Protein backbone atom coordinates (compact mmCIF):
# COMPACT_ATOMS: atom_id res chain seq x y z
CA UNK A 1 0.00 0.00 0.00
CA UNK A 2 1.40 3.31 -1.05
CA UNK A 3 0.29 6.88 -0.41
CA UNK A 4 -0.45 8.57 -3.72
CA UNK A 5 -0.50 12.29 -4.48
CA UNK A 6 -2.81 13.73 -7.16
CA UNK A 7 -2.42 17.30 -8.32
CA UNK A 8 -5.30 19.74 -8.57
CA UNK A 9 -6.43 21.02 -11.96
CA UNK A 10 -7.66 24.58 -12.16
CA UNK A 11 -8.45 25.23 -15.81
CA UNK A 12 -8.62 24.01 -19.36
CA UNK A 13 -5.14 25.26 -20.24
CA UNK A 14 -3.76 23.51 -17.15
CA UNK A 15 -5.29 20.24 -18.29
CA UNK A 16 -3.77 20.59 -21.75
CA UNK A 17 -0.28 21.69 -20.76
CA UNK A 18 0.45 20.54 -17.21
CA UNK A 19 -1.40 17.35 -16.32
CA UNK A 20 0.64 14.92 -18.41
CA UNK A 21 -0.46 11.47 -17.47
CA UNK A 22 2.77 9.50 -17.44
CA UNK A 23 4.08 9.69 -13.87
CA UNK A 24 7.66 10.30 -15.04
CA UNK A 25 6.72 13.50 -16.87
CA UNK A 26 6.40 16.74 -14.93
CA UNK A 27 4.60 19.90 -16.07
CA UNK A 28 7.03 22.74 -16.85
CA UNK A 29 6.65 26.22 -15.42
CA UNK A 30 8.69 29.38 -15.61
CA UNK A 31 10.73 29.32 -12.42
CA UNK A 32 13.23 32.03 -11.68
CA UNK A 33 14.53 30.77 -8.32
CA UNK A 34 14.82 27.52 -6.45
CA UNK A 35 11.61 26.49 -4.70
CA UNK A 36 10.74 23.76 -2.24
CA UNK A 37 7.38 21.97 -2.08
CA UNK A 38 6.46 19.57 0.71
CA UNK A 39 3.89 16.81 0.98
CA UNK A 40 2.85 14.93 4.07
CA UNK A 41 0.27 12.19 4.43
CA UNK A 42 -0.95 9.63 6.90
CA UNK A 43 -3.10 6.65 5.97
CA UNK A 44 -5.02 4.02 7.93
CA UNK A 45 -6.05 0.71 6.34
CA UNK A 46 -8.12 -1.74 8.35
CA UNK A 47 -9.69 -5.07 7.36
CA UNK A 48 -12.70 -6.59 9.11
CA UNK A 49 -12.63 -9.53 11.54
CA UNK A 50 -9.35 -8.36 13.12
CA UNK A 51 -7.37 -9.15 10.01
CA UNK A 52 -4.62 -6.93 8.63
CA UNK A 53 -4.43 -3.28 9.66
CA UNK A 54 -1.82 -0.76 8.60
CA UNK A 55 -0.80 2.73 9.60
CA UNK A 56 1.42 4.55 7.11
CA UNK A 57 3.04 7.96 7.21
CA UNK A 58 4.81 9.80 4.39
CA UNK A 59 6.78 13.01 4.07
CA UNK A 60 8.12 14.22 0.74
CA UNK A 61 10.10 17.23 -0.44
CA UNK A 62 10.69 18.49 -3.98
CA UNK A 63 13.19 21.20 -4.90
CA UNK A 64 12.88 22.89 -8.31
CA UNK A 65 15.57 25.34 -9.39
CA UNK A 66 15.68 27.98 -12.10
CA UNK A 67 16.95 25.51 -14.70
CA UNK A 68 13.84 23.34 -14.22
CA UNK A 69 15.88 20.67 -12.46
CA UNK A 70 14.08 18.85 -9.66
CA UNK A 71 15.26 16.88 -6.66
CA UNK A 72 12.61 14.75 -4.98
CA UNK A 73 12.93 12.97 -1.64
CA UNK A 74 10.30 10.80 0.04
CA UNK A 75 10.33 8.92 3.33
CA UNK A 76 7.62 6.37 4.09
CA UNK A 77 7.14 4.49 7.36
CA UNK A 78 4.37 1.96 7.88
CA UNK A 79 3.39 -0.55 10.50
CA UNK A 80 1.31 -3.66 9.79
CA UNK A 81 -0.37 -5.83 12.40
CA UNK A 82 -3.18 -8.35 12.60
CA UNK A 83 -3.81 -11.82 11.24
CA UNK A 84 -3.05 -13.01 7.71
CA UNK A 85 -4.59 -16.07 5.95
CA UNK A 86 -2.15 -18.98 5.80
CA UNK A 87 -3.77 -20.74 2.84
CA UNK A 88 -4.81 -23.77 4.90
CA UNK A 89 -8.48 -24.82 4.66
CA UNK A 90 -11.00 -24.39 7.50
CA UNK A 91 -12.28 -27.50 9.29
CA UNK A 92 -15.27 -28.51 11.41
CA UNK A 93 -12.91 -29.06 14.33
CA UNK A 94 -10.19 -26.89 15.88
CA UNK A 95 -6.80 -26.92 14.16
CA UNK A 96 -3.32 -26.33 15.56
CA UNK A 97 -0.49 -24.82 13.54
CA UNK A 98 3.21 -24.31 14.17
CA UNK A 99 4.35 -20.70 14.08
CA UNK A 100 6.70 -19.79 11.19
CA UNK A 101 9.66 -19.47 13.55
CA UNK A 102 9.09 -22.97 14.92
CA UNK A 103 8.68 -21.47 18.40
CA UNK A 104 5.24 -22.25 19.72
CA UNK A 105 1.89 -22.84 18.03
CA UNK A 106 -1.58 -21.34 17.66
CA UNK A 107 -5.08 -22.81 17.43
CA UNK A 108 -7.86 -21.93 14.99
CA UNK A 109 -11.49 -22.37 16.02
CA UNK A 110 -13.82 -24.76 14.15
CA UNK A 111 -15.13 -23.28 10.89
CA UNK A 112 -12.72 -20.33 10.95
CA UNK A 113 -10.33 -19.46 8.16
CA UNK A 114 -6.81 -20.26 9.43
CA UNK A 115 -5.06 -16.96 10.14
CA UNK A 116 -1.51 -16.45 11.34
CA UNK A 117 -1.86 -13.99 14.22
CA UNK A 118 1.90 -13.31 14.34
CA UNK A 119 1.66 -11.00 11.32
CA UNK A 120 3.50 -7.86 12.41
CA UNK A 121 6.03 -5.73 10.59
CA UNK A 122 7.42 -2.21 10.29
CA UNK A 123 8.76 -0.91 6.99
CA UNK A 124 10.96 2.12 6.34
CA UNK A 125 11.32 3.22 2.74
CA UNK A 126 13.34 6.03 1.16
CA UNK A 127 13.06 7.17 -2.45
CA UNK A 128 15.20 9.86 -4.08
CA UNK A 129 15.06 11.08 -7.67
CA UNK A 130 16.64 13.74 -9.88
CA UNK A 131 15.13 15.11 -13.11
CA UNK A 132 16.64 17.61 -15.52
CA UNK A 133 16.14 18.91 -19.06
CA UNK A 134 18.78 17.91 -21.61
CA UNK A 135 17.66 20.48 -24.17
CA UNK A 136 14.40 22.00 -25.37
CA UNK A 137 12.99 18.63 -26.38
CA UNK A 138 14.63 16.03 -24.13
CA UNK A 139 14.41 15.45 -20.37
CA UNK A 140 15.97 12.73 -18.25
CA UNK A 141 15.52 11.45 -14.72
CA UNK A 142 17.08 8.93 -12.36
CA UNK A 143 16.23 7.61 -8.94
CA UNK A 144 17.14 5.20 -6.15
CA UNK A 145 15.03 3.17 -3.76
CA UNK A 146 15.67 1.42 -0.46
CA UNK A 147 13.12 -0.34 1.72
CA UNK A 148 13.78 -2.29 4.93
CA UNK A 149 11.50 -4.51 6.95
CA UNK A 150 12.28 -6.92 9.77
CA UNK A 151 12.89 -9.79 7.33
CA UNK A 152 13.03 -8.04 3.94
CA UNK A 153 15.42 -5.66 2.19
CA UNK A 154 14.78 -4.08 -1.20
CA UNK A 155 17.27 -1.98 -3.19
CA UNK A 156 16.50 -0.40 -6.56
CA UNK A 157 17.45 2.20 -9.15
CA UNK A 158 15.86 3.59 -12.29
CA UNK A 159 16.53 5.91 -15.22
CA UNK A 160 14.12 7.49 -17.67
CA UNK A 161 13.98 9.78 -20.71
CA UNK A 162 11.21 11.83 -22.28
CA UNK A 163 11.01 13.47 -25.72
CA UNK A 164 8.64 16.35 -26.51
CA UNK A 165 7.20 16.68 -30.01
CA UNK A 166 4.57 18.66 -31.84
CA UNK A 167 5.07 21.90 -29.87
CA UNK A 168 5.09 19.89 -26.60
CA UNK A 169 1.65 18.44 -27.32
CA UNK A 170 3.14 14.95 -27.67
CA UNK A 171 5.51 13.39 -25.15
CA UNK A 172 7.28 10.06 -25.58
CA UNK A 173 8.70 8.38 -22.49
CA UNK A 174 10.94 5.41 -21.73
CA UNK A 175 12.18 4.11 -18.40
CA UNK A 176 14.32 1.24 -17.11
CA UNK A 177 14.49 0.03 -13.52
CA UNK A 178 16.13 -2.73 -11.53
CA UNK A 179 15.55 -4.09 -8.02
CA UNK A 180 17.39 -6.55 -5.81
CA UNK A 181 15.50 -8.00 -2.84
CA UNK A 182 16.63 -10.20 0.05
CA UNK A 183 14.25 -12.12 2.32
CA UNK A 184 15.31 -13.58 5.67
CA UNK A 185 12.19 -15.09 7.25
CA UNK A 186 12.29 -15.99 10.91
CA UNK A 187 12.86 -19.72 11.13
CA UNK A 188 14.52 -19.92 7.72
CA UNK A 189 13.29 -20.75 4.21
CA UNK A 190 10.91 -23.76 4.20
CA UNK A 191 11.76 -26.59 1.86
CA UNK A 192 9.16 -26.59 -0.95
CA UNK A 193 6.06 -28.71 -0.29
CA UNK A 194 7.36 -30.27 2.91
CA UNK A 195 4.80 -30.95 5.64
CA UNK A 196 4.42 -28.71 8.69
CA UNK A 197 5.46 -30.55 11.86
CA UNK A 198 3.65 -30.14 15.20
CA UNK A 199 5.30 -30.19 18.63
CA UNK A 200 2.61 -32.46 20.12
CA UNK A 201 3.55 -35.24 17.72
CA UNK A 202 7.02 -35.63 19.32
CA UNK A 203 8.04 -36.94 22.68
CA UNK A 204 10.83 -34.42 23.23
CA UNK A 205 11.80 -30.91 22.22
CA UNK A 206 15.00 -32.23 20.65
CA UNK A 207 13.10 -34.63 18.42
CA UNK A 208 10.68 -31.88 17.39
CA UNK A 209 13.53 -29.48 16.61
CA UNK A 210 15.29 -32.07 14.49
CA UNK A 211 12.09 -32.63 12.47
CA UNK A 212 11.40 -28.90 12.15
CA UNK A 213 14.94 -28.17 10.97
CA UNK A 214 14.55 -30.88 8.32
CA UNK A 215 11.79 -28.73 6.75
CA UNK A 216 14.14 -25.74 6.49
CA UNK A 217 16.63 -24.85 3.79
CA UNK A 218 18.76 -21.72 3.63
CA UNK A 219 18.31 -18.88 6.12
CA UNK A 220 17.73 -16.34 3.31
CA UNK A 221 17.16 -16.01 -0.43
CA UNK A 222 17.01 -13.29 -3.09
CA UNK A 223 15.11 -12.14 -6.15
CA UNK A 224 15.81 -9.62 -8.91
CA UNK A 225 13.37 -7.52 -10.93
CA UNK A 226 13.98 -5.76 -14.23
CA UNK A 227 11.35 -3.32 -15.49
CA UNK A 228 10.93 -1.51 -18.81
CA UNK A 229 8.31 1.17 -19.46
CA UNK A 230 7.46 3.03 -22.67
CA UNK A 231 4.61 5.42 -23.25
CA UNK A 232 3.07 8.30 -25.15
CA UNK A 233 1.01 11.25 -23.87
CA UNK A 234 -1.01 13.33 -26.32
CA UNK A 235 -2.80 16.64 -25.89
CA UNK A 236 -5.91 16.33 -28.07
CA UNK A 237 -7.11 19.90 -27.48
CA UNK A 238 -7.43 22.43 -24.65
CA UNK A 239 -9.88 20.16 -22.83
CA UNK A 240 -8.65 16.63 -23.46
CA UNK A 241 -5.41 14.72 -22.89
CA UNK A 242 -4.74 11.00 -23.16
CA UNK A 243 -1.86 8.56 -22.68
CA UNK A 244 -0.96 4.95 -23.40
CA UNK A 245 1.81 3.06 -21.60
CA UNK A 246 3.30 -0.42 -21.84
CA UNK A 247 5.35 -2.01 -19.07
CA UNK A 248 7.39 -5.21 -18.99
CA UNK A 249 8.77 -6.86 -15.87
CA UNK A 250 11.01 -9.90 -15.47
CA UNK A 251 11.28 -11.30 -11.93
CA UNK A 252 13.73 -14.09 -11.07
CA UNK A 253 14.70 -15.80 -7.83
CA UNK A 254 12.74 -16.67 -4.71
CA UNK A 255 9.09 -15.83 -5.44
CA UNK A 256 7.48 -18.20 -2.92
CA UNK A 257 5.82 -16.84 0.22
CA UNK A 258 7.57 -18.67 3.09
CA UNK A 259 4.58 -18.17 5.39
CA UNK A 260 1.88 -19.72 3.17
CA UNK A 261 0.51 -23.28 3.36
CA UNK A 262 -1.64 -25.57 1.24
CA UNK A 263 -3.72 -28.35 2.84
CA UNK A 264 -3.87 -31.97 1.71
CA UNK A 265 -7.37 -33.35 2.35
CA UNK A 266 -9.04 -36.77 2.04
CA UNK A 267 -12.35 -37.61 0.33
CA UNK A 268 -14.23 -36.41 3.44
CA UNK A 269 -12.52 -33.01 3.27
CA UNK A 270 -10.48 -33.69 6.41
CA UNK A 271 -7.01 -32.12 6.37
CA UNK A 272 -4.31 -34.77 6.62
CA UNK A 273 -1.35 -32.42 6.55
CA UNK A 274 -0.35 -28.89 5.58
CA UNK A 275 2.48 -28.33 3.12
CA UNK A 276 4.62 -25.23 2.64
CA UNK A 277 3.76 -23.79 -0.77
CA UNK A 278 6.07 -23.58 -3.79
CA UNK A 279 5.97 -21.15 -6.72
CA UNK A 280 8.04 -20.94 -9.92
CA UNK A 281 11.36 -19.10 -9.63
CA UNK A 282 10.61 -16.72 -12.51
CA UNK A 283 7.71 -14.55 -13.64
CA UNK A 284 7.27 -12.42 -16.76
CA UNK A 285 4.60 -9.69 -16.65
CA UNK A 286 3.17 -7.42 -19.34
CA UNK A 287 0.80 -4.52 -18.75
CA UNK A 288 -0.98 -1.95 -20.91
CA UNK A 289 -2.34 1.20 -19.27
CA UNK A 290 -4.59 3.79 -20.91
CA UNK A 291 -5.74 6.99 -19.23
CA UNK A 292 -7.71 10.02 -20.36
CA UNK A 293 -8.47 13.28 -18.58
CA UNK A 294 -11.14 15.68 -19.80
CA UNK A 295 -11.94 19.20 -18.63
CA UNK A 296 -15.74 19.58 -18.51
CA UNK A 297 -17.11 23.01 -17.58
CA UNK A 298 -14.69 23.53 -14.73
CA UNK A 299 -14.56 19.89 -13.61
CA UNK A 300 -12.09 17.13 -14.49
CA UNK A 301 -13.03 13.59 -15.48
CA UNK A 302 -10.24 11.00 -15.09
CA UNK A 303 -10.73 7.48 -16.52
CA UNK A 304 -8.12 4.73 -16.65
CA UNK A 305 -7.94 1.11 -17.77
CA UNK A 306 -5.15 -1.41 -17.14
CA UNK A 307 -4.73 -4.90 -18.59
CA UNK A 308 -2.06 -7.22 -17.18
CA UNK A 309 -1.05 -10.75 -18.11
CA UNK A 310 1.88 -12.98 -17.15
CA UNK A 311 3.35 -16.44 -17.70
CA UNK A 312 1.66 -17.67 -14.51
CA UNK A 313 -1.57 -17.44 -16.57
CA UNK A 314 -2.90 -14.58 -14.43
CA UNK A 315 -4.87 -11.97 -16.32
CA UNK A 316 -6.31 -8.87 -14.71
CA UNK A 317 -8.49 -5.93 -15.75
CA UNK A 318 -8.66 -2.68 -13.80
CA UNK A 319 -11.07 0.19 -14.43
CA UNK A 320 -10.50 3.39 -12.47
CA UNK A 321 -12.81 6.43 -12.45
CA UNK A 322 -12.38 9.82 -10.72
CA UNK A 323 -14.33 13.03 -11.08
CA UNK A 324 -12.79 16.19 -9.64
CA UNK A 325 -15.65 18.57 -8.86
CA UNK A 326 -14.66 22.16 -8.02
CA UNK A 327 -17.33 24.06 -6.11
CA UNK A 328 -15.68 27.42 -5.49
CA UNK A 329 -13.32 29.10 -3.02
CA UNK A 330 -10.68 26.41 -3.55
CA UNK A 331 -12.87 23.53 -2.34
CA UNK A 332 -13.32 20.33 -4.31
CA UNK A 333 -14.78 16.83 -4.09
CA UNK A 334 -13.43 13.80 -5.93
CA UNK A 335 -15.54 10.62 -6.05
CA UNK A 336 -13.54 7.48 -6.86
CA UNK A 337 -14.69 4.13 -8.26
CA UNK A 338 -12.39 1.20 -9.03
CA UNK A 339 -13.11 -2.30 -10.27
CA UNK A 340 -10.51 -5.07 -10.52
CA UNK A 341 -10.95 -8.59 -11.89
CA UNK A 342 -8.29 -11.31 -11.83
CA UNK A 343 -8.03 -14.90 -13.05
CA UNK A 344 -6.16 -17.57 -11.09
CA UNK A 345 -2.54 -18.68 -11.52
CA UNK A 346 -2.07 -22.02 -13.28
CA UNK A 347 -0.64 -23.55 -10.09
CA UNK A 348 -3.28 -22.12 -7.74
CA UNK A 349 -5.43 -24.62 -5.83
CA UNK A 350 -7.42 -24.11 -2.60
CA UNK A 351 -6.29 -27.60 -1.47
CA UNK A 352 -4.65 -30.82 -2.71
CA UNK A 353 -6.25 -34.26 -2.65
CA UNK A 354 -4.70 -37.13 -0.71
CA UNK A 355 -3.48 -39.96 -2.88
CA UNK A 356 -2.80 -37.78 -5.89
CA UNK A 357 0.73 -36.86 -6.90
CA UNK A 358 1.96 -33.59 -5.45
CA UNK A 359 2.54 -31.05 -8.26
CA UNK A 360 5.86 -29.27 -8.70
CA UNK A 361 4.25 -25.92 -7.91
CA UNK A 362 1.23 -25.28 -5.71
CA UNK A 363 -0.18 -22.35 -3.75
CA UNK A 364 -3.48 -21.72 -1.97
CA UNK A 365 -2.72 -18.02 -1.50
CA UNK A 366 -6.00 -16.22 -2.30
CA UNK A 367 -4.00 -13.37 -3.87
CA UNK A 368 -3.16 -15.78 -6.72
CA UNK A 369 -6.75 -16.97 -7.08
CA UNK A 370 -9.74 -15.79 -9.05
CA UNK A 371 -11.28 -12.67 -7.57
CA UNK A 372 -13.10 -9.38 -8.02
CA UNK A 373 -12.40 -6.27 -5.96
CA UNK A 374 -14.37 -3.04 -5.63
CA UNK A 375 -13.32 0.33 -4.25
CA UNK A 376 -15.72 3.23 -3.60
CA UNK A 377 -14.42 6.44 -2.10
CA UNK A 378 -14.63 10.19 -1.79
CA UNK A 379 -11.88 12.77 -1.43
CA UNK A 380 -12.42 16.31 -0.13
CA UNK A 381 -9.79 18.98 -0.62
CA UNK A 382 -9.35 22.65 0.18
CA UNK A 383 -6.80 25.20 -1.04
CA UNK A 384 -5.30 27.43 1.63
CA UNK A 385 -3.11 30.51 1.43
CA UNK A 386 0.38 30.40 -0.11
CA UNK A 387 -0.36 27.39 -2.35
CA UNK A 388 -1.11 25.14 0.59
CA UNK A 389 -3.64 22.34 0.26
CA UNK A 390 -5.26 19.96 2.71
CA UNK A 391 -7.37 16.93 1.76
CA UNK A 392 -8.98 13.85 3.28
CA UNK A 393 -9.87 10.60 1.51
CA UNK A 394 -12.26 7.92 2.78
CA UNK A 395 -12.74 4.67 0.85
CA UNK A 396 -14.46 1.34 1.25
CA UNK A 397 -12.75 -1.71 -0.24
CA UNK A 398 -14.24 -5.16 -0.84
CA UNK A 399 -12.41 -8.22 -2.11
CA UNK A 400 -14.44 -11.19 -3.33
CA UNK A 401 -12.42 -14.36 -4.05
CA UNK A 402 -14.23 -16.83 -6.31
CA UNK A 403 -14.28 -20.58 -6.86
CA UNK A 404 -12.16 -21.28 -9.94
CA UNK A 405 -13.89 -24.61 -10.59
CA UNK A 406 -12.62 -26.81 -7.74
CA UNK A 407 -15.01 -29.42 -6.34
CA UNK A 408 -14.94 -29.29 -2.53
CA UNK A 409 -15.13 -32.79 -0.96
CA UNK A 410 -16.94 -33.75 2.24
CA UNK A 411 -17.04 -31.16 5.00
CA UNK A 412 -15.34 -28.52 2.82
CA UNK A 413 -18.53 -28.17 0.77
CA UNK A 414 -20.21 -26.65 3.82
CA UNK A 415 -17.35 -24.32 4.77
CA UNK A 416 -16.42 -20.94 3.34
CA UNK A 417 -13.28 -21.53 1.31
CA UNK A 418 -13.43 -18.09 -0.33
CA UNK A 419 -14.34 -15.54 2.37
CA UNK A 420 -14.86 -11.91 1.41
CA UNK A 421 -12.50 -9.27 2.75
CA UNK A 422 -13.75 -5.78 3.57
CA UNK A 423 -11.61 -2.82 4.55
CA UNK A 424 -11.77 0.89 5.28
CA UNK A 425 -9.10 3.34 4.07
CA UNK A 426 -8.70 6.80 5.58
CA UNK A 427 -5.99 9.18 4.36
CA UNK A 428 -5.06 12.75 5.29
CA UNK A 429 -2.81 14.90 3.07
CA UNK A 430 -1.19 18.29 3.54
CA UNK A 431 0.76 20.08 0.80
CA UNK A 432 2.75 23.24 1.46
TrEMBL record:
UniProt biased composition (Polar residues): 92-106
Q: Which InterPro entries match?
A: DUF3570
Q: Where is this region: Disordered?
A: 82-106
Q: What is this protein called?
A: DUF3570 domain-containing protein
- Which Pfam families does the UniProt record give? DUF3570 (PF12094)
Amino acid sequence: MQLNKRGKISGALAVASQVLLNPTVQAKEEITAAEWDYDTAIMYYGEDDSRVSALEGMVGATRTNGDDQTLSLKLTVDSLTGASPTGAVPQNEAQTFTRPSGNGSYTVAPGDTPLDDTFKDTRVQLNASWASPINRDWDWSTGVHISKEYDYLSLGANIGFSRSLNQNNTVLTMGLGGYFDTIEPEGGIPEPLTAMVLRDNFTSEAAYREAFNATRGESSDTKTTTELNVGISQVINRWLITSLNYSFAQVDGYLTDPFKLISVVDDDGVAQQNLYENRPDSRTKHALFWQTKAYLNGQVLDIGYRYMFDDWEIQSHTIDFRYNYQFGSGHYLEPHLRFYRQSEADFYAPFLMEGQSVPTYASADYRLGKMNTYTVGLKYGMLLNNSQEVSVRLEYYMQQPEDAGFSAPGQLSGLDLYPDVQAVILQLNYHF
